[in-house]
Amino acid sequence: MNQLEINANNRTVFGKKTKALRREGIIPIHVYGLGEPSLSLQAELKPLTDTIISAGRTTPVTIKLNKKDTVALIRDVDRHAVSGNIQHVDFLRVDAERPVDAPVPLVLINQEDAPGTAGGAGVVTQGIYEITVRAKPFDVPSEIKVDCRVLESIELSIMTNDLKLPEEVELISSEDERVAWIQPPRVEIEPVITEDSGESEENRTEQDTSETTEDDDSTQEES
Questions:
Q1: CATH 2.170.120.20 residue ranges for the chain
Q2: Looking at the domain 4-93, which fold is it?
Q3: What is the pLDDT of residues 164-205, one digit of tens each?
Q4: Alpha-carbon gap, residue 39 to 155, rounded angstroms
Q5: Among 33, 68, 132, 150, which one is least packed by beta carbons within 10 Å?
Q6: Nearest 10 degrees: CA dihedral of 160, 161, 162, 165?
Q7: Looking at the domain 100-183, which fold is it?
C-alpha cells in the first residue's frame, strides 16, 4: 500500500483569526490520541484535500512535522454548512504495530451478473454499507468488494460471515448481518370486477334511487 503523507506546520493562529488562514489556502488540523499531548497544526488545502479523498476513514496518514512522523487516521472533517469547504480536520494518532478498529465500506460488484436476477426475477439489494474490522493501521483495507454472482436465487443472501477478508483482518461487526440479497419485484394486484358485483352495484343504485323518490313523495304529502 502506498503510504499517504501530508506536510504540516505548528499553528499559532486560533479562534476567529483562522478565517484569515483559510483565505490563504491553509487549513487548521488537530492531532490527538495515544496518551500524547494534542497538537494544533496547519496544512495546505490542496494536498490535504487530496489526502482526505484517498484515505477516507480507513487508510492511515503520515503527518510530517519538523522531521518527525506521526501515523494517524482521519476522524472528523468539518465543512462549511453552505459552501462545503473544509474548515478543520481532526486526526487520531495510531500505533502502526497495534491493531485498531476501523469502519470499512462494502462495495457490491457484478450485480447484473447475479444468476438470481435473470428474467427480471428481482434486483440485488444492499442491506449494510460498512463493517467494522480490526487490523494494524496499514493492513486495514480501503474497501471490501462483495461479489454478487453467488446469489443464484432469491432464497440466498450474502451474510457478513461470508465476506472474504484478508488474513490479517478480523471482523468485529456481527457475523449474521445481511449484506445483500435479491429483492423480488413488486406486483400490483388489480381489483377483479365480476358480473355479480356489477349487478349488485346496479341494484344498490336502483334501490337508493327508489328510496329517494319515496322520501320525496312523503315530503310532498306532508306539505
A1: 100-183
A2: Ribosomal Protein L25; Chain P (2.40.240)
A3: 999 999 999 999 999 999 999 876 666 666 665 555 555 555
A4: 53
A5: 68
A6: 90
A7: RNA Polymerase Alpha Subunit; Chain A, domain 2 (2.170.120)
